Every structure is written in C-alpha cells, then in structure tokens.
Amino acid sequence: MSNHIENKPYLDFVRTLPCIFCRTDHAEPHHIISIGMGFMGGKAADIHTMPLCRGCHTEVHENPDDYPQTKWMVLTQEKAIKVGVLT
C-alpha cells in the first residue's frame, strides 16, 4: 500500500521556488526519503517535498542521510502556508 497522496497545486508551488540547498532557479520537487517516516519503499505524500535543482536532487538521492531533508521540508511547507497554498 502506498502512502502517496497527490497535491498538484503544492507541487506547482514548489516548482516556483529556488533550490533550497544551492539557491539555483529551476528547482523540481524532491519527495523526502530515508528519514524513517514509514514509507516502506512507497513515495512520500506531495506535501513532503522540497525544491531541489537537478544536481542537488541527484546528490540527495545518492547520500540522503547527509542532508537536512526534514528541515527543508518544513521550511518549504511554511512558505506554502504563508502564501496560502497550504492551510
């Protein structure tokens, strides 16, 4: 069973943000991985994303424990709440 819950408006919002790590434009949503949230190989819900450019996205997938994904996810959610994308 997948825990994935889609939220296209949120993903569209995340795509408007710069990379949360290197601040480069043209970021894409990265679904949080390897943090013990019980996804069991499934994809995290769309609200569990953060903006990462292609290079940083690849690096986080190669070394997920080296990056503060939970912090980045929360910062992204807080931005979305401030502009009304999440309520």
Count of separate structural domains: 1
Describe the oligomeric state of these chains in a short phrase. Answer: single chain
How many β-strand stretches?
2
> Order of strands across the widest beta sheet?
1-2
User: What would you call the shape?
Assistant: globular
Indicate the radius of gyration in whole angstroms: 12 Å
Count, helices: 3
Terminal-residue CA separation: 27 Å
Fraction of residues in helix: 25-40%
Largest sheet: 2 strands, antiparallel
Q: In percent terms, what proportion of residues is strand?
A: 5-15%
Mean pLDDT: 90
Listing every helix as H and every strand as E from the N terminus to the C terminus, the arrangement reads: HEEHH
- Uncertain segments: none
Based on secondary structure, the structural category is alpha+beta
